[in-house]
Write a sequence for this structure.
């Protein structure tokens, strides 16, 4: 049973992450993608850790942009969207500093740190490039602080968005990392090739090294 779950869990996580971005299903910035990117870096093997979550992200962006264009007549794509991709790539890279042998506490902390990195990178970019011409985002230290805390008038504050980012990063990392750690120990050599990195035994110390 564990072996079967190990094959399907990454797919389930990808589907859940995609659904978490659809308008109205979750609060703003309450996304499973922060955890997905981090856990992909920590658990997925080879190039799979890079292209699979990023392909899911780009696919959902295309679907969302098409929805906004057809349903609302809004062209939602902005060049600054590429900064989001760079931030998610940074989370994947950060996740590679961990693996299935990392403790659950470390993985949970790592997932939360990844979400914080995304918040800092994207909100700093919003202040720096100001694609929507927000008058509050002056090119001063105070303008940057406003971008990180208050945001634009008439909308929820960026601190409220940050809270959702933290909560979703922690919640989904706990879900993803906990499930993947439970299944990794039961993985066979053939399943290791399927995408999820299994726990690797610690190398034994040679007698000569032990006596050195």
């Amino acid at each position: 049973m564990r072996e079967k779950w190990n094959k399907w869990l990454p797919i389930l996580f990808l589907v859940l992450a995609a659904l978490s971005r659809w308008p109205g299903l979750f609060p703003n910035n309450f996304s499973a993608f922060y955890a997905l990117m981090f856990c992909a870096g920590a658990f997925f093997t080879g190039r799979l850790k890079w292209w699979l979550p990023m392909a899911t992200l780009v696919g959902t962006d295309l679907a969302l942009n098409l929805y906004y264009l057809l349903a609302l007549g809004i062209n939602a794509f902005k060049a600054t969207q590429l900064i989001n991709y760079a931030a998610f790539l940074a989370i994947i890279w950060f996740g590679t500093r961990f693996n299935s042998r990392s403790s659950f506490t470390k993985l949970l902390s790592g997932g939360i740190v990844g979400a914080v990195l995304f918040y800092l990178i994207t909100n700093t970019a919003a202040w720096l490039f100001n694609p929507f011409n927000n008058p509050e985002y002056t090119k001063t230290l105070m303008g940057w602080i406003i971008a990180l805390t208050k945001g634009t008038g008439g909308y929820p504050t960026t601190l409220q968005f940050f809270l959702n980012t933290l909560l979703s990063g922690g919640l989904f990392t706990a879900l993803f990392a906990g499930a993947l750690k439970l299944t990794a120990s039961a993985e066979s050599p053939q399943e290791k090739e399927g995408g999820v990195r299994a726990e690797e035994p610690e190398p034994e110390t040679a007698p000569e090294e032990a006596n050195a």
About this structure: Confidence is low (pLDDT under 50) at residues 188-192, 200-212. The chain has nine helices and no strands. The chain has one domain: 2-195.
